[in-house]
Amino acid sequence: MKKIPFTGSGVAIVTPFDGDKINFDALGELIEIQIANKTDAIVICGTTGEASTMPDAEHLSAIEYTVKKVAGRIPVIAGTGSNDTNHAIALTKRAEELGADAILSVTPYYNKANKSGLIAHFTAIANAVKIPVILYNVPGRTGMNFSIPVLKELAKIENIVALKEASGNISYTAQVAAEVPELRLYSGNDDMIVPIMSLGGVGVISVVANILPEETHNICQYFTEGKIAESRKLQLEMLELINNLFIEVNPVPIKVAMRELGYTVGNLRLPLGEMEEGNLQKLKASMTAYGVKKL
């Protein structure tokens, strides 16, 4: 079995901004809160971190800062995906040099890729580094889905170790688990942690963990320990809040929720804008109902 970078809950951490710059002091505070509250890994510069709006120098500075701040206490996974293979390779190599424990690489978006191109894309990325590569399947954002034959080919590469599965299609996920067992599964959807772990998944790369890190960790931990009823109870209690954290495109609601709780996360970067008032009220109501508090 391939070695994976973490089991449990990896937080897809938001990036605090102060105008057009990263607020590194605020990022450091968020990292410390996550570590103190049992998060199992930090995923920096993912979708939730608004990496798509970051120039390379800023993107890499966020990875470098996070690696130094975490200082080996838990794994750091760096988002380095791109729809330009050479760009993805360059970011991935620098992430390894900066000390990231693994990288997260999304399927090419907009231009997409055919089967041969997709295999060549990820093969080139994986061959450029020695650290583990987590593939990221999120067709709602990229307009494409990993086919089973492509995953089977990519699973032959030693350091392609896992799939962050965010299609929302449990039948597809079951097929991956059955036919490509070499790749471990992380849930990419907070409402499907327990279902995916029931198919052999090893955890989640989570948005809701930004505000409920210990609870998200516990969903995974309880399941791993065989406390299925307890895990399921936590998952279902969190469901309405999770749904409202995706009532508008991620990361708008989670960043707004963190502001409401008093965290210093700053502005959203265009083209992301502020929430509609009706959606904001639904989000706030679900936060109150769950009893979310600043940590």
Question: What does this 3D model show about the protein?
Answer:
It contains 13 helices and 10 strands. The chain has helices spanning 24-36, 56-70, 85-98, 115-127, 139-142, 148-154, 170-179, 193-198, 213-224, 228-237, 239-244, 252-261, 277-290; strands spanning 8-12, 17-18, 21-22, 41-44, 76-79, 102-106, 133-137, 160-165, 184-187, 203-206.
Structural class: alpha/beta
Strand content: 5-15%
End-to-end span in angstroms?
Answer: 37 Å
Helix and strand string, N-terminal first?
EEEHEHEHEHEHHEHEHEHHHHH
Number of helices: 13
Which sequence of strands runs across the widest sheet? 1-4-5-6-7-8-9-10
- Whole-number radius of gyration? 18 Å
Give the fraction of residues assigned to helices. Answer: 40-55%
Tell me the total number of β-strands: 10
Q: Which overall shape is indicated by the principal axes computed on the Cα atoms?
A: globular
Average pLDDT confidence is 97
For the sheet with most strands, the description reads: 8 strands, parallel, barrel
Q: Catalogue the unreliable spans.
A: none
Give the gist of this structure.
This protein has 295 residues and is an alpha/beta fold. Helix content is 45%, strand content 14%.
